[in-house]
Amino acid sequence: MTHTLHIVGGGLAGSEAAWQAAEAGIDVVIHEMRPQVGTFAHKTGDLAEMVCSNSFRSDDSDNNAVGLLHWEMRQAGGLIMAMGDAHRLPAGGALAVDREAFSAAVTERLHAHPRVTIKHGEITALPEDGHWIIATGPLTSSALGQAIAAETGSDALAFFDAIAPIVHADTIDMDVAWAQSRYDKGETEDERRAYLNCPMTKDEYEGFIDALLAADKTEFHEGETAGYFDGCLPIEVMAERGRETLRFGPMKPIGLTNAHKPDQKPYAVVQLRRDNKLGTLYNIVGFQTKMKYGAQTEVFKTIPGLQDAAFARLGGIHRNTFLNSPTLLDEQMRLRSRPHIRFAGQITGVEGYVESAAMGLLAARLAVAELRGQSLPPVPPTTAIGALVTHITGGAEAKSFQPMNVNFGLFPPLPEAKSGRRGRRERYPAYTARAKEDWQGWLQAGALAPA
What we know:
Elements lengths: L3 E5 L3 H12 L3 E6 L22 E4 L6 H11 L3 H8 L1 E2 L4 E4 L1 H14 L3 E5 L10 E4 L7 H11 L5 E6 L2 E3 L9 E2 L9 H4 L2 E6 L1 H13 L20 H6 L27 E7 L6 E4 L8 H8 L10 E3 L2 E6 L3 H4 L5 E2 L2 E6 L9 H19 L12 H12 L24 H26 L6
Parallel strand pairs: 1-2, 1-7, 2-6, 7-17
Antiparallel strand pairs: 3-5, 4-5, 8-15, 9-13, 9-14, 10-11, 11-12, 12-13, 16-17
Helix pairs in contact: 1-11, 2-11, 2-13, 3-4
């Protein structure tokens, strides 16, 4: 095999793409601009650095679309899931990882692979020839973003995303907070106690909302607009939509019992999730924010249990870049105007770590087949990966295209499926059983054994 696959971006999607291609016998070059060129959110030069949460979300492959996506990637020999499993932390029914150990392990595995070369430096223009996957993610550099915009004619390449703060565990008041996963989910005691919970009375909640609404916010630069992805809204934006919004979102009190006052039901609860293996850091779940740093410290210290909190990282806001993929990409994830270039990861309009990595996995497999003069059968839209790629390459409305997490709403309906909340108990396992069978069939039909 004489061809080389070039991958721009060493995030989760680029790392997964490189692994899949290299394991199939293709020489790969990863072009990663960090650490020479940094971003607002990244702190290291490691590959697959996790900059927002440390959670891959639900790991339930029978009843949850994200868990199903985990399962499909594991079946395909995915590096991201293997390293996630190797560095997992207790998180109830979710898969959370020690983010530093995880990214270090991904970096080590790719550096050690004989078919992978890593080149540090910024790619500022679209390549004229060769075989390429662009997986630069939500923080695509300005120069490359401009090159993409010039090629596609699109002016809808940016939206804003916010990241949540991280608290030092030893500064959380455990006389107020208690350890419990919602509904006591988890098979072990560690799993059932994976979250710390800070309760609020009605008066405390109302005071928190008042402080949140009054706090100083980050100003946007001239010409920038705030088109947020609904799955990752800053908490102050949620509060602006209604005073009860947070209480029915990340601060919902259901499934939790205050260990200190079991007879008193909290009006609202702030949850913190373990962020590293040592258990010394916790991130505030769902608390992405665009408040200024001073305001964050003041507002978050009004939360019972966090009155003396010390923050390892405060929240922030950064620009995200994504394509209007339904109009720009074909079913093979190729740029229609330059079919030697594929796109993968969050820049394609999927949202979330595992969704991004899954698109890297698929783009690499499609590229490998093309390099060999072969073609893979279409990925069944009944699978999690198939539902995502179908959505971004034509299943979504181009005029209203927004970044999307995997969810069962993207899957073809089941025949004679019951509707409503009760029907989900039967519908979701039926979705996942169908998907698992179809995904295994697709992997067998398009097996990528080393050349």
